[in-house]
Amino acid sequence: MPLYQLQSIIGENLLKFLRVNGYTKTSLAKMTGISRPTINQIVEGKSPNPKIYEEQIQKITDAFNLPIDYFTYFSDVQQEKWHLPSTQYSDRSTFSNRNELTKDLLSDLDELLTVATFYIKG
């Protein structure tokens, strides 16, 4: 099955992988040269172009030296309550009119809090 048809699974597994390994979407963007908004599209499973999507997944898996289909089956982490973003309301509100920079900053802060939780929980 083409990777493009598995976007939601790949996005979910990519986000888990980043959190488990202490990366943020911003650090992934820097490692791969893929823009932060595009990383958001990948994680949300909303990439519009199949060919470009596969190229982006290739860049991501290359950055971590993983097989291209890795995120189709990565799921060795159980979702626990503390894995969930603690500030979902802050930038995901339906009535929010925040600009993109504010949304990115809030998302980065949320990612930092998630990474800090891993260190606190041990």
TrEMBL record:
InterPro entries referenced in this protein's UniProt entry, alphabetically: Cro/C1-type_HTH, Lambda_DNA-bd_dom_sf
CDD domains: HTH_XRE
Source domain of life: Bacteria
GO MF annotations in UniProt: DNA binding
Residue ranges constituting the HTH cro/C1-type domain according to the UniProt record: 21-71
Pfam families: HTH_3
The protein's name: Helix-turn-helix transcriptional regulator
High-level lineage: Bacteria, Bacillati, Bacillota, Bacilli, Bacillales
